[in-house]
């Protein structure tokens, strides 16, 4: 749902969480590097993703 821009409050309701932050912490993770690059291109940022340490 996060990758499809579903509103966090809607995700919270669907998942049954008391707080949208719980939903975001548990379910809204980055699945692929290409998703990061796509979003960064929208912000006119470099297309490379820094290494995670």
From TrEMBL:
GO terms for molecular function: DNA binding. GO terms for biological process: DNA integration; DNA recombination. Keywords: DNA recombination. InterPro entries: DNA_brk_join_enz, Integrase-like_cat_sf. This is Tyr recombinase domain-containing protein.
